[in-house]
């Protein structure tokens, strides 16, 4: 068993032997399971090559704005136990000059129903799923060849792991999931390398990554301030002018059946190496007035990391 296999196993999320069997669908890996047992106590801190940040999906998503910052309402559907984590995380993100956040406390919602135009933040016991937090952003496309924009975000805290967890772990999870709701990607998906000091970095030592960091704030500027950096700022400008135009002008809108790409209702992460996935996609559709639309839900995972 070579080093590459060990690295592979590591980046698969260090699954158990049973999960590996499930994952590969019964392929006979011979003594692979022995190796899993043998290396479970390996000291990953010794591996120098793990220092570089690693991200599977480094793309940003964006709410539609005028290119001068993001104003967003966060609906607080959390129960009493989560109020201070929420208040602290909102204040920490508000340190970005790009963000103007308002909060409203709504009825506790353990089922975390999405709401148009807002980020809903909630907690619930989602079970032994392998993830401590999830953010699901829904993206809407109004033109077939145009940019998609976030129309809702749901940040979920999993009580199964967080109920009696250390405050620092809860605070890290809250900061992390709220960050995705602005459209931010992870900054690093290897929990065993050096901590980057921002809460979108996977870590097994949450006390090091309690706050949003400069990397996150810079990325927010590039998404929401026109003329700052990458394409999304420009895309926002364009979309403001064009997104409500006639979607049929190209004459190429197709009607397709609803497509669920993967996952669907399956919230289970264990044994799957996933930091994000598309869990629903309507495909290209028209509404009753013949307007083009397509909606996609992208789920970002914060895996259980011990
Ligand atoms: C796992 O460790 C045991 C005990 O040290 C050893 O006998 C066995 O050969 C190892 N298995 C593999 C696949 O390295
Ligand atoms: C992700 O993209 C940003 C912006 O392009 C870049 O600065 C950063 O280094 C990338 N991160 C990784 C881990 O590739």
What bound compounds does this protein have? 2-acetamido-2-deoxy-beta-D-glucopyranose
Q: Any idea how many domains? A: 2
| Strand portion | 15-25%
Give the strand tally: 8
Reading off the top of the CATH hierarchy, the class of the largest domain is best stated as Alpha Beta
Radius of gyration: 20 Å
User: Can you tell me the residue ranges where pLDDT is under 50 for at least 5 consecutive residues?
Assistant: 1-7, 20-49, 233-265
Order of helices and strands: HHHEHEEEEHHHHEEE
CATH-defined architecture of the largest domain: 3-Layer(aba) Sandwich
The CATH superfamily title of the largest domain: Collagenase (Catalytic Domain)
Query: What is the mean predicted local confidence, pLDDT?
Result: 79
Descriptive account of the structure:
GO terms for molecular function: metallopeptidase activity. Keywords: Signal. It comes from Seminavis robusta. Residues 235-287 are annotated as: Disordered. The radius of gyration is 20 Å and the shape is globular. It has helices at 3-11, 17-24, 32-39, 83-93, 159-162, 167-181, 214-224, 231-242; strands at 70-76, 99-105, 119-124, 131-141, 148-158, 276-281, 285-286, 292-303. The protein is built from eight helices and eight strands. A hairpin with a 6-residue loop joins strand 4 (131-141) and strand 5 (148-158). The longest helix has 15 residues, at 167-181. It is of the alpha/beta class and 306 residues long. Mean pLDDT is 79; it is low at 1-7, 20-49 and 233-265. The chain binds 2-acetamido-2-deoxy-beta-D-glucopyranose (2 copies). One 2-acetamido-2-deoxy-beta-D-glucopyranose binds at residues 1, 31, 34-35, 38. One 2-acetamido-2-deoxy-beta-D-glucopyranose (NAG) is lined by residues 1, 31, 34-35, 38.
